[in-house]
């Protein structure tokens, strides 16, 4: 529950400029005591947290809901509702639509673009009380679950049935499947299992007028016209509230293995990826890039099992390779011969490699990769750019950003401390993190639009997997054409004419 603990931190030192202006929320109303009286007819008192109610909730209890995981975005909501059923969600939404009250759907609040917290005092609708598995069929592998199920709990649920969720990410102890779907989360298994646009089979969604759209089918094939569910995957709560998810779970691999490779220079990553794909072929399930600076931060903050310092002297970056297959001996043999051929090559692509030899070591190597986001957040305030660029540009993006900040005299202890890169090589997804002593207007002005222009110059995407949220609404045009944005706005207006659903997010 690491993310929860961080999310609970009270925020006092953040500059006021991070409270967004009311401009995006024109025409919406605040929750009143009359609204609360209505909600009390729908929900038990234990499902209502409000600083407005007669037995007012202390505002400190609302802080974890109003502040995001990074302590960067801060809302001022007076009211959090925690419905237990789709019917309750529907009744709340119908009332809010009539009263024109903005709603922010909230899952585990681990999102990294400020999408899950209010801009002002919108009502927060938390899915935390909707956390039941509805059904699982171990023949087809189809899992149907409430949107509020925590990703790790679904993983635990499926384990005895020899299946896994086709999605894994560092925030799995807190994020919810509804939040994953709503952000179209990518994560660590995308290379093997593809995106949620493929593995989600159906959704149940409460639309902005309160109507329940039941598309919770569990069919692998269904070509009956427009595939509406796709609109809600990655909509970040702007088109409706996901209340149920049907997803195709994957058979659990019989054997998983991993190896951490240290590379003398970044230029070796691309040839290494080619070689690893060639040798491991069908058992390759992850290929994750970690630059030296962020590796050192992970080690400093005790994430995972560090490699022997002597062995990695001079290493410029690291790659974590995972295999998942049906036969342990066969996979181990493949990994061993890969390592051997890499080490014995005339011009070795790697300095060294550490192969996990037990489940504990396997987890410890993954913990380095999964702990990077947290290590960065312990080091300072991170500006996070989650971008898609060609693989051979990963290091160039990091280096150019660092040089740019240096040229602005912002690269020192009191401003930007580190510029680091890590990410999912197989998906062309780089996490560029600029770690600063504090969030300041100067640093932000130096980074934006610089980073977005750089990404656009490679015809990349300004958001590979974290979404747009409130952070990147103004930058959407770097990755979407005016025609695309116009049609996105038309779709939003069609579903949500009153603009109550997660106002101020995604669209400029
Ligand atoms: C340590 C860490 C590691 C991460 N690693 C990855 C990674 O590898 N890959 C990746 O893609 N992301 C990653 N993320 C970010 C990722 O987007 C989120 O962790 C996750 O997908 C969001 O789920 P959540 O339940 O926390 O949603 P929240 O943060 O609560 O919400 C995110 C957005 O979805 C909306 N939303 C939430 N639930 C619903 C719902 N039921 N219906 C409609 N809208 C809803 C919210 O309004 C908001 O716009 C990471 C985050 C952390 C903190």
UniProtKB/TrEMBL annotation:
PROSITE patterns: FAD_PCMH. Belongs to the FAD-binding oxidoreductase/transferase type 4 family. It comes from Polyporus arcularius HHB13444. One of its GO terms (molecular function) is FAD binding. It catalyses: (R)-lactate + 2 Fe(III)-[cytochrome c] = 2 Fe(II)-[cytochrome c] + pyruvate + 2 H(+). Keywords: FAD, Flavoprotein, Oxidoreductase. The keyword Transport does not apply. Its cofactor is FAD. This is FAD-binding domain-containing protein. It comes from the Eukaryota. Residues 73-252 form the FAD-binding PCMH-type domain. Transmembrane segments: none annotated. One of its GO terms (cellular component) is mitochondrion. Pfam families: FAD-oxidase_C, FAD_binding_4.
